[in-house]
Write a structure and sequence with these properties.
Length: 316
Amino acid sequence: MTLSLNDRAHGLADRLAAEAEALRVAATKLPNGTRLIDCGSAVPGGLEAGRRFAEICMGGLGSVSFAPLTLEERWLPGLTVVTDRPALACLGSQYAGWRLDPEDYFAMASGPGRALIRAEDLYDDLDVDERARSAVLCLETRDAPPEAVADYVAERAGVPAAELTLLFAPTASLTGSVQVAARVVETALHKLHELEFDVGSVVSGFGSCPLPPVAGKDPEAIGRTNDAVLYGGQVELTVEAPDDELEAIVPRLPASASDDYGEPFGDMLERADWDFYKIDPLLFSPAEVRLTSVSSGRSFHAGAVDIDVLERSFWG
């Protein structure tokens, strides 16, 4: 039986929409039948909406839960992410790799609908054969997608517009804070892929990340959410690979391996005139990473959390 990311996510979205009032989200339909679920733009959303948003982003192949974290004796609210299908859940589904910009609209799109659209070169390196009756995308934006954008997405995904679900929330929202922090394992997988390591050999992922306080405006939220991962994210990956390969690559995985590491992300962006492409792409990874070999049981570690930068970002 084919494992369908979109069919799994569609079921989770159904449950989210069914509890819209309790979760402070809003489910509506466009004239073409596309379902929109606002998780934090014109509605408050919340922590639980963010948790469910993140699990939908992973195509139902990962679980997100809230947990307190203690980093260098400082208590922080946080979350944990677990997946036993890391490449599929994190890169095939969760990664925000599609720039959705038709009809003067813009959003970064993540979620399982990307596996149907396959607009990214990333899919050339993944073992993904997605087939589904419906499509689900998660959009990081404050603006509700109009009907013309929904039609465009449905056509690209090869599904009727009435079988498309688009969830959206801005970065500066409770949902936004949660769903970005929940990408902590995804950033480790993406860094491995960028370093040309076989992500298919990663058999499980466990990560924790502090939950950044919600920001008043999206630019500030972009800084805080990235800092949560870069300076507070901790990930352990279980890998089917020789010890010498794990030992060689682990020092290159943490965010600290980048020359751009060491200051709040918002400051970096401001200095770069808000141009993400001026920042080292290999910066985007967790603060601390451990790789454990399935065959030998040995673990290889690199990186560390940096509470000082987190405090400057979150409360400075």
